[in-house]
Specification:
By secondary structure, this protein is mainly β. It contains 4 helices and 28 strands. It has helices spanning 30-38, 97-104, 126-141, 325-328; strands at 2-4, 18-20, 25-27, 40-46, 51-58, 61-68, 75-78, 81-85, 89-95, 144-153, 159-165, 168-173, 178-183, 187-192, 210-214, 217-223, 239-243, 248-254, 258-263, 266-271, 276-281, 286-292, 296-303, 306-312, 337-342, 348-354, 364-368, 373-376. The strands form 7 sheets. Strands 3-26-25-24-23 form a 5-stranded antiparallel beta sheet, with no helix packed on it.
Length: 395
């Protein structure tokens, strides 16, 4: 599978900007069976691999569909929308039954049957037609098709967690150390910043990264420290869980925390540098370790009694070399993968482990009511011939 190199923003269409990436994995026998039984699939982002992976089940087999993006981080599913944050954009996908039906019916199989204005001799090369045929085949196998409807260029906000709320789309703007909502007119609107951040500057001062929503509003965030100068977290770690409404620190002394989530009246979060999942009770202010995994915990979601957690390999850097996880594990014996866990006792029920080139995961979310979804972006060959419109009586 091809993915983007590190340099450059956006798709250039130049094959020189692409590299081959091995997305091979191995998984517990029951992993696809669990997804199939629940009627769900997973969207997982890997900024290191420049990809969003759709983990899908068909019978007893697991399938991974890979879509390329430039450094994707936060992913979010809400009703019929799937959003992806990239290095400088938020890309909005929407479930499109009309487009899927047009493919299933065979209407777009033969490119020569389309109006001449819908064909282009320069574009419609043999390679283009081969990609188009491949994408048509993929759509015919899916049960839900997400097509790209819009995108918003934000600049490099180093966007981490994203989520829909009552006021629209909320993002963690790590570059400016704030929470923000997005606008097509102004790019972003800063809505909240930690009390220890004195001004809005693109200096990633405390590495604000995680956001937990509650009742349509941001409720909790995680930071790497509480300092107020450029890139301070790269030399001084003192991670926190903060209450947004009160703008106060609830827990300090954490190791590179990520992915806070509200669930059943508790707050769960990844104490990433320890490989831990923590549970915090807002009523008693007590915290406990639910489980410890052999990897950098980052990416967390729930489905009923199940908790799904992503882990990444520890990596060599001036920051990560000093975290507790590196004292217990080497990069080789940490796991990059997905874990399905009993949320009540921390028991590991199933796991998937990437064995190829994928080493870093950021976020994962559940796609409900779909065991075999597919995504088509605006850059895909078939997108030129997919349409979504409202059927109204013409007058």
């Amino acid at each position: 599978m091809q993915g983007y190199r590190e340099q450059g923003y956006g798709s250039t269409g130049d094959e020189a900007d692409l590299v081959n990436i091995d997305f091979a994995s191995e998984y517990s026998v029951n992993f696809p069976k669990i997804l199939q039984a629940l009627g769900i699939s997973l969207a997982v982002s890997s900024y290191q691999s420049h990809a969003v992976m759709l983990l899908r089940s068909r019978g007893t087999a697991l399938n991974c569909s890979v879509k390329k993006f430039v450094r994707p981080m936060g992913v979010c599913v809400s009703e019929d929308r799937l959003l992806v944050s990239t290095v400088n954009r938020i890309v909005n996908f929407k479930a499109s039954s009309m487009s899927r039906k047009s493919v299933l019916s065979g209407e777009v199989d033969n490119i020569d049957s389309l109006a001449s204005k819908l064909r282009d001799e320069q574009r419609d090369t043999d390679a283009f037609k081969a990609l188009r045929t491949e994408q048509i085949s993929a759509i015919k196998q899916c049960d839900v098709l997400f097509t790209e409807r819009s995108s918003l260029t934000t600049g490099t906000l180093n966007t981490h967690d994203i989520a829909w709320g009552d006021d629209g789309l909320w993002v963690v703007n790590s570059s400016f150390s704030c929470l923000a909502t997005l606008s097509s007119e102004s790019g972003f609107t800063p809505r909240w910043r930690p009390h220890f951040i004195s001004e809005l500057k693109p200096q990633d001062r405390c590495h604000l990264n995680g956001m937990a929503m509650l009742d349509g509003q941001p409720k909790y965030v995680t930071t790497f420290n509480t300092q107020d100068y450029q890139d301070s977290w790269r030399t001084e770690l003192n991670g926190t869980l903060m209450d947004v409404e009160k703008n106060e620190i609830l827990i300090s002394g954490l190791s590179m925390p990520h992915s806070p989530r509200c669930h059943d009246g508790k707050v769960y979060l990844c104490n990433s540098g320890e490989g831990e999942i923590l549970c915090y009770d807002p009523k008693t202010c007590e915290k406990s370790v639910l489980c410890t995994l052999p990897g950098f915990t980052r990416g967390l979601t729930f489905y009923g009694d199940l908790m799904l957690v992503a882990t990444s390999h520890v990596r060599s850097s001036t920051v990560v070399n000093d975290i507790p996880l590196t004292r217990a594990h080497t990069q080789r014996d940490t796991v990059c993968g997905i874990w399905i866990i009993n949320k009540h006792n921390g028991e590991i029920l199933s796991k998937l482990q990437f064995k190829g080139d994928v080493s870093q995961l950021y976020d994962l979310c559940i796609i409900p009511n779909s065991t075999f979804p597919e995504m088509i972006s605006g850059d895909d060959a078939i997108s030129a011939h997919l349409y979504e419109f409202t059927k109204e009586e013409l007058k």
